[in-house]
Fold:
Amino acid sequence: MVVDCRNRLIMEISDLFQQLGIALGLGLLVGLQRESASSRLAGVRTFPLVTILGTACALLAQSFGGWEALAVLAGEIEQGASAVITADGGGLARAAKVGAVALSAATGAPLLPVGAACRPAIAMPHKWDAARNPVPLGRVAIATGESLRRPVFDCPDEIETARLRLQGALDEIAATASRILCPPPQQNENHSTP
Structure:
């Protein structure tokens, strides 16, 4: 019995380090790309920290539930941490949830819509959001929109208005990322009509 509990604990710790390692690796890749593009947004130090924080919050959400994890994240942001969350987690895919808007209202942090597209990609129809994962050496486009100011709520209807505004910004920036990979065909300007 003691050996079984010890083995289970070792497996849980191993899974934890694997998830944090993947987050660190992805953050380093994005950070290296941003530095090679001479971006002023963030770089090789910022993105790994943000991805690890996001992974820790996701693990907290699994343990405590979404609203409790959101409260922990809000406390971290108020102490100066940066955070990245997906606004559509669980439930209907690609539909912004109220949690992102509530977090912004509670902390004063702006919302920065981000969209991504990849090509070629492996479709994952069995996942809740039908994710598309890029193949090795494939192309990935990441686009960011204008930051949305902190919403202020005087009545419950304003929460839904802010959520819909976020949804519109996310839809627009996702379409922008797709257009980067697949631009519309250009018309030949030298073409003359008889």
The beta strands are 114-123, 132-144. The longest helix spans residues 2-36. The radius of gyration is 20 Å. The helical segments are 2-36, 46-64, 66-78, 98-107, 156-181.
